[in-house]
Design goal:
single chain, about 160 residues, about 40% strand, globular
């Protein structure tokens, strides 16, 4: 079950995205930032391609590397997408009153590496559909599916906000 957090700064109370708007933003965003924890507890942030599917975030990558090591050591992760539309300049030219028209989603969750070959293949097909739709429907070579890591982020907390 996803828990939406509402104890936030004032703007979060007055500029919340609806669940539908959150799903739309996650569906159309091309990149997100994944945060894992290094062994010393410091954050490690990396931009990733992803799909939002069945109320989870999925990403793919190589079977070795820092993010995989971090997830193996501590499954707690953060994830964020952010779309800036434009700057909202103060009509009087005051730089301190410049703002940004944007939408964002912030997620906390736990990550795991998918191990079922059918599950991996299904998610990789979803990634192909999102990023290279002209290649959707082509069969994925089984050696590529086996050699690719699929990360699933199960969402425990999710918030979305906007300003316009």
């Amino acid at each position: 079950m996803i828990r939406r957090i509402f104890i936030m700064q004032h703007r979060m109370k007055t500029h919340q995205l609806s669940e539908e708007q959150i799903h739309q933003l996650l569906g159309r965003s091309q990149t997100g930032s994944l945060t894992t924890l290094n062994s010393d507890g410091t954050p490690y942030i990396i931009p990733i391609h992803f799909v939002y599917y069945k109320n989870a975030i999925f990403a793919h990558g190589l079977p070795k590397g820092k993010k995989i090591d971090n997830i193996s050591n501590d499954a707690r992760v953060g994830f964020c997408v952010y779309e800036m539309d434009k700057l909202l300049l103060d009509p009087n030219g005051n730089p301190c009153d410049t703002n940004t028209k944007y939408e964002s989603v912030i997620i906390s969750g736990t990550a795991r590496l998918a191990d079922d070959i059918n599950e991996k293949g299904n998610i990789l097909k979803k990634i192909v559909e999102k990023y290279t739709p002209h290649l959707a429907g082509k069969e994925l070579p089984i050696n590529m599916v086996k050699g690719t890591v699929v990360i699933q982020i199960d969402i425990t907390e999710m918030t979305g906000k906007y300003y316009s």
